[in-house]
Amino acid sequence: xxxxxxxxxxxxxxxxxxxxxxxxxxxxxxxxxxxxxxxxxxxxxxxxxxxxxxxxxxxxxxxxxxxxxxxxxxxxxxxxxxxxxxxxxxxxxxxxxxxxxxxxxxxxxxxxxxxxxxxxxxxxxxxxxxxxxxxxxxxxxxxxxxxxxxxxxxxxxxxxxxxxxxxxxxxxxxxxxxxxxxxxxxxxxxxxxxxxxxxxxxxxxxxxxxxxxxxxxxxxxxxxxx
Length: 226
Prior knowledge:
Blueprint: E1 6-11, H1 15-26, E2 31-37, H2 40-50, E3 54-57, H3 66-74, E4 83-88, H4 96-102, E5 106-109, H5 114-125, E6 130-131, H6 136-143, H7 155-158, H8 164-174, H9 179-186, H10 190-204, H11 209-218
Parallel strand pairs: 1-2, 1-3, 3-4, 4-5, 5-6
């Protein structure tokens, strides 16, 4: 039986961007665009109406921005719980880390190849998180030092329930390593590395791998380089 396609909502205030994404998604296997939105408020409303699997969200939009829209879409009491992928221009956007805190599961830049964006949508729809490889270190290292409204719990409390081996795995994930790379570094199987990541997600209440990276930085397991 053929799997149902991943249903995508496009939220961007630039019609040309939406048109380009819609065109390439229409030609891709296993993906379909179910709606569009030109601002954050419309994105929240259309998400509730259409129940997409993934929302591709711009950050800078008139009225409600993508950060607040992401928070409303993924937060408690949301009418639907899709995954949100932030798609924006990194070099002039200081709000990406805020979007990840708000619940986004991925961060992509608009100059990525379209097939890379399609891959990212599929990865996020499958339950994982993804940050554009070209800016993974640059993004997290820059924004990890920007505090939230309240200081996050230190490693002594937030990581109290994890084992020493899980702490090692979290440190490596925070450094941007894949499961295969974690396995190689720790001399364990890829399946075992994946099991450790799954346990960390459950113990730390993280949505996905992206948020494990954030936790690794917030708790000091990985130090941002200056």
